[in-house]
Amino acid sequence: MPHTASSETVATDARCEDTRQEAAGVRLSRRSALLGAASLLLPLRPSELLAASSTSGPRMPAAIRLDSNENPYGPSPAARRAIMASIAESSRYADASVDTLKASIALHEGLTPAHVILGSGSSELLHMTAMLAADGGPGGELIAARPTFEDLSEFAKLVGVKTHWVPVDVDHRHNLVAIQAAINDNTRLVYVCNPNNPTGTVVAHEALEHFIRAVPAHVLVLVDEAYVDFITDPSAGSIASRVDRYDNLIVIRTFSKIHGLAGLRVGYGFASPALAARVRAKQLAFPNVAGLKGALASLEDRIFLRDTREALLADRMRLEAFIDQRGLSRAQSQGNFVFFDVRQPIQDFRKALAARGIKVGRPFDGYPEWARITVGVRSEVDRLIAALPDVLDRA
Fold first, then answer.
1. pLDDT in tens, 82-122
2. Same domain for 309 and 295
């Protein structure tokens, strides 16, 4: 008489088979993960990584993201290796990494670690400065250009600091004369985003230093240099070397732009040691170990940073040439983006490009028909330039 398996036996066999399949899947997943990790550790030269980024189909998302001024080439090979290696240290607090990164930044800038402030992205440094401005009690004011990066003004409002807006000039630059004239007894903080976001314009180094000298010593001056690495104007540049000369000066930067670490949130800044200590006292969060390790490695990968900058500047010039050929007005950008008049409501322009799989920047105060578009990798800029004529001709 043939043997008949009981339902219990069949169920047990099925569970065993499921377990074997799951185990095989785990082995496969672990193997895939190890292979994926190994690919991140490959010692690619910067030029090879840039070429791969600009030609490889799988790297490009379904929608091209040209809306947030990110670096499309991502972290350098050295930073990728450091980020992967940092996993082994993720169970530990990053105290030593903070000190190491501060020392490295100070060395690059010719300052001391006491001058350096670290934060979770430059946004946290903006918030820390706003809280410092709020220390004087209610009624304090921040003076800022319109338009500019809104993060500082939005947080300042939360801590009781009102923003006094000063429109940019006819060349879309900070109007330093008007900003100086706006300073009053309630002014606690002046914000200069240089290069400015969204216009991309800069004020010359000499003009900026002259302005800082004229600001009363009790008023903080915050210069945001998030895009300083993309400046090509020989009259402009960083003001960081002056922090010891002006006790009210704070300069901030970020690893989110040229370094391609936006998602890991590492910002840094400079001030005189006394002012830097006051800013640090407002810190709300502690930088993460992966970001710190990646930032340290990226800071030293000068060849990759140079190649990335050259690639982005070349494509910024291509976009500007296209805009000029169309006879459209634009700002003189010194960032990794362009800002120009599209001669139609910006929301209509954004929708038309979104329908073609391209995301571009949001509306900005005072510029209802101007678009801010981030420079992508070469193939993304190709797609944008191919799509723009039809979208612009709709106006």
1. 999 999 988 888 888 999 999 999 999 999 999 999 999 99
2. no
